[in-house]
Amino acid sequence: MIRVRDLRVRYREGGRPVDAVRGVSFDVAPGECFGLVGESGSGKSTVLRALVGLASDWSGTMSVEGEPLGKSRSPRFHRRVQMVFQDPYGSLHPRHTVDQALSEPLLVHGLGRERDRRVVQGLADVGLEESFRFRYPHQLSGGQRQRVAIARALMLDPVLLLLDEPTSALDVSVQAEILNLLHRLRRERGLTLLLVGHNLAVVAHMARRLAVMQAGEIVETLTTAQLRAGTPTHPYTRCLLDAARISRRRG
Amino acid sequence: MGRFRAPGRGFWGGLAAVPVTVLGLLLVTFVIGRVIPVDPALGLVGDRASADALAAARTGLGLDLPLWRQFLAYLGAVARGDLGMSVLTGRPVLEDVARVFPATLELATLATVLGVGLGVPAGVVAAARRGTWIDHGLRVVGLLGYSVPVFWLGLMGLLLFYARLDWVPGPGRLDVLYEGLVEPRTGLLVVDALLAGEGEVARNALAHLILPASILGLFSVASIARMTRALMLDQLRQEYITTARLKGLSEARVLWGHALGNAAVPLLTVIVLSYASLLEGSVLTEIVFSWPGLGFYITNSLLNADMNAVLGGTLVVGAVFIGLNLLSDGLYRVLDPRTRPP
Questions:
Q1: What pLDDT score does A63 carry?
Q2: Chain B CB within 8 Å of residue A79 CB
Q3: B337: DSSP letter
Q4: Pairing between strand A58-64 and A33-37?
C-alpha cells in the first residue's frame, strides 16, 4: 500500500535548512496498521506531511497503491488518502458547521447529489447522532470534535488513513473511545492505517508493526509481539519502552 | 481563543452602554466650551459694548446660571437638535454640519472603497507569497503610504495630475461651470447629479473626487494591506487550512475562501474603524484640495473661535464613531458563530 525509500525532507527554519527526515524507508501492507513512534522533533509527522504533499523540499521515492508520488497530488489521491490531525479544534474550520465540514469534500469532488445521505451516514459511522449535523466545532466536546474530524476524513471513502497523534490532545478516557472507533472502522472498511504517535502504549495498542524514529531516522522496525516479548535491540526503543511502563504504573 | 477579539459582553451590553457614552461625550464638549477662554457674550456684543450690555447678553445666554443648570439646558437643546448658531456663518450649526458632512462622507467612502479594494488583495497576495519580492515590494509601497505626509502627497498629486498632465480637474468639489446645476438632496454630489439625470455633472464631481480620495485611500490601502497580511498569516498557520488542502480544494479556494473568510471577521473591525477615522474629516487633505468637508469646517471654526460650531462638529464626529463601533460589534456577532452562546 505504502512504499517509502530513502525519504529525506528538508525544512527552512529562519533561513537555516533543517534536515527533518534523513533517509527513511518502510513498507505498509494493505489493511495493515503501521505505527511510527518517536519523541517530538523526531520527524515522524514530517513523514506524513511529505506523503500527502505538504512538504516541498524532499528527495527519495514514495508510492501509494503502486503509484509513485511526485511534487503535487491529484484529486484522485485525495479521494484515496486522508489524514486526521492531533488537534481536532484547529483542524476544523471554525465558522463552518459539521454539515459544511463534511459536505465540502463531496462538493469539491463532484459528489454533491448524495450530500444529505452521506453526511448523515458519515456521522452515524463515527457514532454521532444526526442532531450534531448543524453544530459548530466550538459547541462540541474534544472527543466529539475528533469524531467529526474522522468522519470528515472518511467522507470520500479513502483506502488509506494517516493519523497524526489522533488522541494525544484528548482526555485519557476519550482516548480509548477514539482508538476503539478507529479499530472498528479499520475492521469494517478494510482501511490501511499509518499511525504516528509519541506514546508507545497507544501505538502498540493499534499497530501490528511499528518503526521507532529518532532524529529523523528509523532506528528499529519491529512487531508489537517482539516489543511485548521485550526483545527490542536498540537502546532508544528500550528507553521508550521503559518510559511507557513507568507512565502506565503511575497512571 | 485569545487570537480572536471577543466583542465585549455582547451586543446588547454594548447597546446599553451607548447612552452613557453619549452623555459622557456631551459632558466633555460642554466642559470644553466653558473652560476655554472665549466669551460667547463678548463675541455677540463686540468688545466696545458697555458693561451693562455685556451683562445683559450673558443673562440672555444663560451664562449667569450655575454650571449644572447650564449643562441641563445644553442637554435639552441638543435633544431638540439645537446645536446653537455659528458666529462665522450666521446659520444654525446643525444646518452647517448637514451641509459639510456629505462632502467628507463622499471622500471617506471612496477612500475606504479603494483601501479595501486594493489593500485586501495586496495583503492576501503578500501573505501567500511571504518572503518573496512581491511581499517585499508591497511592504515598501505600504511604508510609503504610512510615512509620506498627506499634504505633500496632495500637493505633488495636484502638480502632476492637474497642472502637468491635466488628467484630473483642480481643487474643489465641482468645476465652477457646473455649480448650482443640481439641487442638493443627499448632499453627495455624484449621487445628486445622477438622481437629477445630469450625467455630465456626476462625471465632473467624480473626477474632482478621484485624486483626493486616492491620496487619502493610500493610507487606508497601506494599513488595511498590513492588517490583512498579518491576519492571513495567522490563519494560514492553522490546521484547518491543511485540512482544506487535503480535501482537494484548489489553492485559490483555500486562500480566498477559507483563510480570507476567517481573517475577514477581525479585519472588518479594522476597516470600520479606519472608515470612522476618515469620517472625522481629514483636515490636511481637505485644506489642500479646498474640500468643504467636516474637517475643514471644524478647523476653520476653531481658528475663528466659533465655539458652537466646533462643539457641534465634535459631537457629530463622536456620534458617528459610536454608531460605527456598534455596527462593527453587531457584524462581528453575525459573522462569527463562536461569539454566540453555545
A1: 93
A2: yes
A3: G
A4: unpaired
Q: How many CA atoms lie within 13 A of A54 on its CB side?
A: 20
Nearest CA in chain B to A102: B247
Q: Is the Cα torsion angle B32, B37, B39, B43 positive or negative in sign?
A: negative
Cβ B245–A91 below 8 Å, yes or no? Answer: no
| CA-based nearest residue to B193, from B154, A126, B185 | B185
Q: Where are the alpha helices (DSSP H) in A14-67?
A: 44-51
| Cβ count near B269 (within 10 Å) | 17
Q: Which amino acid is at B184?
A: P
Residue A233: burial class (beta carbons within 10 Å; 0-12, 13-18, 19+): exposed
Cβ of A79 within 8 Å of Cβ of B248? The answer is yes
**Rounded to 5 degrees, what angle do the CA atoms A181, A78, A103 make?**
65
- Chain A residues in contact with B240 (beta carbon < 8 A): 90-94
pTM: predicted TM-score of the whole model, two decimal places: 0.78
Fold of the domain spanning A2-250 = Rossmann fold (3.40.50)
Nearest residue in chain A measured CA to CA from B337:
A95
Low-confidence ranges of chain A (pLDDT < 70): 246-251
Residues forming beta bridges with residue A161, ordered by sequence position: A82, A193
Dist. CA A159–CA A189, nearest whole Å? 8
Whether residue A94 and residue B240 make contact (CB cut-off 8 A), yes or no, is: yes
Residue stretches of chain B with pLDDT short of 50? 1-8
Q: What is the DSSP string of B24-50?
A: HHHHHHHHHHHHSS--HHHHHH-TTS-
Give residue A244's identity as a one-letter amino acid code.
Answer: A
Among B248, B284, B254, which Cα is nearest to B127's? B254
State the amino acid at position B294 in one-letter form.
Answer: L
Sign of the CA dihedral B85, B91, B92, B93? negative
ipTM reported for the complex, 2 dp = 0.81
In order of their start, the domains of chain B are 91-293 (1.10.3720.10)
Task: Using CB atoms, pick whichever of B239, B262, B338 lies closest to residue A85.
Answer: B239
Pairing of strands A16-28, A2-13: antiparallel
C-alpha cell at B286: 481637505
Q: Where are the domains of chain A?
A: 2-250
Question: For chain B, what is the mean pLDDT?
Answer: 83
